[in-house]
Amino acid sequence: MLRAMLRDLRAHKGRVAMTLVAITLGVAFVVATWVVSDSAAETIRGQDVRGDVSVSVQIAEKAPELTAADKDRLAGIPGVASASGVTFGYAGLIRSDGKLVSARPDMAGTGWDSSDRFSLTAGQAPGPGEVALGEPQAKEAGRVVGDTARILLSDGRSLDATVSGLYTYRPLGEPVPSVAFGDPAVLGNGFARVELAAKPGANTDAIAAAARDFLDPDLRTVATGAELTEQAQARADDSAQSQRESLLGFAAVSLLAGMFVIANTFSMLVTQRSRQLALLRAIGATRRQVRNAVLVEAGVLGWIGSTLGVALGIGMGLLGLVANGGEGITLSVSPTSILVGYGTGVLVTMVAAYTSARRAAGVAPVAALRTDGSFGARSLVLRTVVGLVAVASGFIAIGLTLRNDLSTTERIVAMGGGIAVWLGVLFLAPVLATAVLRPVGRLLSRHGGPATRLGVRNSVRDSRRTAATTSALMVGLALVCAFATLGSSITSMLSSSIQATVPAAASIVHSPVDRVALGTDVLEKVRSVPGVTKASADRYTFIKVTHNGSTSPTTMSAIEPDGLVQPEIVAGTGDVRAGAIVGENEAAMIGARLGDQVTLVLDPVTSITTTIVGLHKGMEGRPLFYVDLATVPAKFRDSTVTSVYATGPDPAAVRAGIEQAFRDRPDVVVTDRDGVIKEATESFELLLSLMYALFGAAIVIAAFGVVNTLALSVMERTREIGVLRAVGASQPLVRRAIRMESVVICAYGGLLGILVGVGFGAVMQHAMMGQSLWEFSVPYEIIGVALVGMIIVGVLAALWPARRASRTDVLAAIATT
């Protein structure tokens, strides 16, 4: 029996071709994700491990630097042979076109030393007045050994230094610096890290313990060389895992779309073979044997599709690495990635086919006497009840969380409600198909031609099949529209936030690198520009907030009380002299109210305790806490300036004067409010475009599912099509009818996906951003493109099935029983 069914599967390759495509693409995404993440981790693990560091003493984040006295004390620990101080600081390397290289300048500079962290690849070590450059940055800047490089420092000064050599760098967890100064004092006299080398035979654990004894553990971290190696490997694994988890979400969507295609295909295949299955039952096959035979078919298809998917996934992973600058990347194809690919493909296929296998097992032997080769209609009552319950539960959950100031739990409840509604619509898809398409069919029957009437009626004939076919389209398109709605809403909110906070006439100065502080000279230099009557700064920085014994990360800006930056107040006062102003959503997240005291931890040794006096309509990406500049220690006032705003009687003259003052400073960008809004939204829109492309894979799989459904449906209706041809239907009429059926199916799936997607996007922006549920922005452009795209998909998906249907042999079709 099993051999007979497998032979039947092999004899009808066209029936399973599109199913294989769905499995292959889904598995390929999974394997490609694993290959890319494993390769990145393997590259990091494969880097040379430094053997010259026995113990490392490093400052904690934002902690004061180590001093020369600290270095001397560490050098005096018994067993220490030498102590080397490592300095990091601001160094903006200027390219030949006058712009900064792409590396972040705030940690791009270091002092040259003889440690193993540098490996010269050209030239020689730098001396006073000289620098060595990292190979990639030197190539980007267009500099070679012997050239003069211009480098900007944190206080606005620049220096011209001779490039004495090029190097590659072996880090101990820090970003790879671009510039190594022959004179480390250029970056200051403090150290970010002190590296200790042990004497032969010395106990490194004892040295580390001694270092911990006289250093504040809240300000310094101490690790041995072995611990540093383990930490580097752990960071590589964590990075790979994080990358894998983010990309596997897209692969899961593709697999979900593939499941709908596979389930629909097997449902139709089982229906078409109902007489064959009944004959097997009549000659003695048990229900279990029939069910297992169908599952074995699914397993074989899953294995074949997985084999193709694994090969394609490895290729996609390699292309992805090359496209992202794969030079020096170690390609890693682990056995795990291959096993996950096979396991996923086979499991997804068998799960998708299980319901059809149960239906096949339920075929009665007497069905062999039937001539129509079909199953009786299945009840939709249970499915409809489950769908209605899910939708009702989702709406209740959303209704209970309509406030803007949601806690973390309430945000999760709101998101869960949106997901419940989405799942409910999937369950209700057959009922909705009947409810929507039948009135459309009646309308078109009065105003459309015969091809239109046939196409619409065929799409409504089996609402369960239509729902299964459109569900894959709906999932892919709903995700695109959901994130488009979220993106459009965030863009709109970000624009509104900037417009409400910054005067329209202000000229704005900021760094070309996002969230990098400006030079300490910028604010005063702006104030000295002729025509500037008022200038103030925004000091965006990451801090921690403590309230009621709980500490969480947040963001803060120290502003002038009468400055140009004025947050949009929704409750309380906007006078920062009276206390802190916090975003209303942030306040809800930490459980704080007006009048509550909070402690803002700026660094391990500096904190501010203040009272919340106002709530503002803030959002992620903008400061959540605003405090009076006077309450912030002096060391933070100039070193954390991220933006400067300036106005005067003649805004155009102010803008021109500032541009002239900074004409030779590539570390400074001069723009206006509209320019800031454009910069803020462009990077976000680029991320959304990438997500659309990845979710588009699900839509491609769904399109193959439409082709598969139509092709199998044509085979199922061979006799019907033959009768139509016999009574006078022309080949063009049959082709138009199949095309119309395809367009109706795709349009229905597209409309359902758009409605669900926009609704879920509104819930996402409400839950994630804390904005009103009704303040979402509709992405009309994406919706228009989606509708046109669905019609195009419908037409293209019908080309092969329509051609096949129109060429049906009339006499052979009528003779089919």
TrEMBL record:
The chain crosses the membrane at residues 16-36, 247-271, 292-319, 339-357, 380-400, 412-437, 467-487, 690-715, 743-762, 782-800. Residues 250-362, 694-809 form the ABC3 transporter permease C-terminal domain. Keywords: Cell membrane, Membrane, Transmembrane, Transmembrane helix. One of its GO terms (cellular component) is plasma membrane. The keyword RNA-binding does not apply. It is a multi-pass membrane protein. GO terms for molecular function: transmembrane transporter activity. It is found in: Cell membrane. This is Putative ABC transport system permease protein.
